[in-house]
Amino acid sequence: MQKLIKDGVIAENTWAFIAKAEGEAAAVAVPAGQVLIPVAVWLAQKDQLQNRTDIGVWIDSDEAAELIGEEANRFAVIGINFPGFMDGRPFSTARLLRERYGFKGELRATGNFIRDQLCYLRRCGVNAFAFANPEANLEEAVKSLSDLQEYYQAAVDQPLPLFRRRA
């Protein structure tokens, strides 16, 4: 079983990841067990899936947090996908889910982010990291969560800016 970083420690990834389907989202078969499904599948099959507690969704970088919106806290896990490490839109999605929609569950970065981004993703509210590269060195990646110790600006993990903390 592939591992991930969750809340600063290496853990087992117990959630299956369902990729986007080529065809209609309504026709995608959602298996039993803990599964992260594309947000399009959730929207197309919400009536059939709404009673399941083992469903999480993932949002691609070209999809908006508003697709889930106020329903965010019904999910134990929400994934935000990085198709490439240079795509910064998932950072905004993470902050919106935490700050605007009050999401309290596991917010998981998935896909092609890089180790240098972990500290900043955590500042945006991401608390789990599932690297696309199965050979990623997770022990070294955990260290990257503490790359910076002090920040000037406010963020999800530190709501007061430095000048307010020192006053």
Quick description:
The chain has 167 residues and is of the alpha/beta class. It has helices at 39-49, 89-100, 118-123, 138-144, 162-166; strands spanning 3-6, 9-12, 16-17, 35-38, 55-59, 77-82, 106-111, 128-131. Strands 2-1-8-7-6-5-4-3 form an eight-stranded mixed sheet.
Jot down its keywords:
167 residues; alpha/beta; Rossmann fold; eight-stranded mixed beta sheet; 5 helices; globular
Q: What do these coordinates show?
A:
The protein is of the alpha/beta class and 167 residues long. It has one domain: Rossmann fold (3-Layer(aba) Sandwich). Helices cover 25% and strands 21% of the residues. It is built from 5 helices and 8 strands. It is globular and about 55 Å long. The relative contact order is 0.15. The mean pLDDT is 90.
Distance between the termini: 48 Å
Task: Briefly note the structural class of the backbone.
Answer: alpha/beta
Radius of gyration: 16 Å
Overall number of structural domains: 1
Estimate the helix proportion, in percent.
10-25%
Number of distinct helices: 5
Layout of SSEs?
Layout: E1 3-6, E2 9-12, E3 16-17, E4 35-38, H1 39-49, E5 55-59, E6 77-82, H2 89-100, E7 106-111, H3 118-123, E8 128-131, H4 138-144, H5 162-166
